[in-house]
Amino acid sequence: MKIIEIKNIVRKDVPIYYKRFYKGNLVLDIMDKQDEIPVEFSIEHKPTGHTEIEASFAKEINYPLVPLMKELKTFIADLESNRKLPS
User: Fold this and answer.
1) Residues with Cβ < 8 Å from 5, sequence gap 6 or more?
2) Greatest CA span in the chain, whole angstroms?
3) Which residues contact 74 (CB under 8 A, 6 or more apart)?
4) pLDDT digits (tens, 9 = 90+) for 21-37
5) CA-CA distance, 36 to 47, in Å (whole number)?
6) In degrees, to the nearest 5, what angle opens at C-alpha 20 toward C-alphas 87 and 63?
7) pTM, rounded to two decimals
8) What are phi and psi of 49, to 5 degrees?
9) Nearest Cα residue to 79 out of 6, 2, 1
10) What pLDDT, on a 0 to 100 scale, did the predictor assign at position 4?
């Protein structure tokens, strides 16, 4: 399993300044077959300085969720640190 990209990332407009909500389409490569899955995720900056990332999928995935979520959270954290998420 490999995450290729997250397409069409859109930031939801909410009045909470320390938590950002996004939605997009996750492109996965699972055993040389690409699949596009709608995904929603949030990035919350805690008062301690820690960043918490949560994600959910709009449809069922034929892959174990624990390794997929770990990879997805790492991918989202990289997008944020490289400032590639919409503001």
Assistant:
1) 27
2) 42
3) none
4) 999 999 999 888 999 99
5) 35
6) 110
7) 0.92
8) 95, -10
9) 6
10) 96
